[in-house]
Amino acid sequence: MIAVSRLRQVSWTEVVPVLGAVVLALAWGRDLGAVLVTIVAIVLAGTVLSAVHHAEVVAHRVGEPFGSLVLAVAVTVIEVALIVTMMISGGPDTASLARDTVFAAVMITTNGIVGLSLLVGAFRYGVTLFNPEGSGAALATVATLATLCLVLPTFTASTPGPEFSTSQLAFAAVASIALYATFVLTQTVRHRDFFLPVTADGEPDAEEHASPPSTKETWISLALLMVALVVVVGLAKVESPAIEAGVKAAGFPPSFVGVVIALLVLLPETLAAGRAARRDRVQISLNLGYGSAMASIGLTIPAIALASVWLDGPLVLGLGPTQMVLLALTVLVSVLTVVPGRATRMQGSVHLVLLAAFLFLAINP
């Protein structure tokens, strides 16, 4: 009876990451049929939901903005590993994979996560409130990183094509790390209150109604979160041949593979941001959205720059004209959203329409 009772106390969120790791070990390096691809996809979806749960447990324990930072950095580190792995196995054909994935991540976070969170919060509470100082600083950092790493390569003249020279790439990598590190210090040390949810009076509010989990539960959730994130990216890699085949069969351009990768990797953060918005803590949602965009550029580009030492072929980073127009419009709309410190369904809808435009043009450039 005791053993049965203990088994009943084990949550599905604890079982699924372990199950996913087993499935990943069995499926890695093998050709999968349609049935097995479907099974892997189901396990992948379950692991994503599990990752969201454990991220929320850790975030509740350490408090904001550390909780959002944990998930953003963890997901981005795994995203980098996935991009590098696919670039190594794909050869020269994946020269623009890093650009496509990072730009997709920026559009999904700044328009998808932010827009969805604002819409969910506005539908539930009428008007969403957040701190314009913290969100504005995050948006400024994202815009600077995106321009430095994704726009300038199109206009530099040292090398032909939308590429950086070796010295330019090194400068962009160092500048990205410096900017990201400065923002993290600002967010977690010097001006932590700028990134906390706010009350109707505009005052920081770090309170949570539920009691925080114990230290043991937090460590278990942190370990399972790491396992879940590795499994998510590993299973995404296993599914990548099916994804590439599906993209090709649908007649979509090869660059759409980067969009699919970004959608898969950012799914945990999207769900976590939506849940935070439902609790009237939209600032946490914005921390996740802008923090993920920032980490995606500020960590991915330096890692890819380092990996380019042994990667064959060119590294295409510069955006095309259509992508730059979407990026510029996104930055402009985001500024107008963030500055007032409050938003309605209108702002959320505008951001989601921008995301829809990006996805449509990624399919039909």
UniProtKB/TrEMBL annotation:
A GO CC annotation given for this chain: plasma membrane
GO terms of molecular function: potassium:proton antiporter activity; sodium:proton antiporter activity
Domain Sodium/calcium exchanger membrane region, residue spans: 35-188, 221-363
Listed transmembrane segments: 12-29, 35-54, 66-90, 102-125, 137-157, 169-186, 219-238, 250-267, 288-311, 317-339, 346-363
Record keywords, A-Z: Membrane, Transmembrane, Transmembrane helix
InterPro entries, per database record: Alkaline_pH_Ca-Antiporter, NaCa_Exmemb
Keyword Transmembrane helix: yes
Bilayer topology term: Multi-pass membrane protein
Localization per Swiss-Prot or TrEMBL: Membrane
Pfam families: Na_Ca_ex (PF01699)
Major location category of this protein: membrane
Name by which UniProt lists this protein: Putative ionic transporter
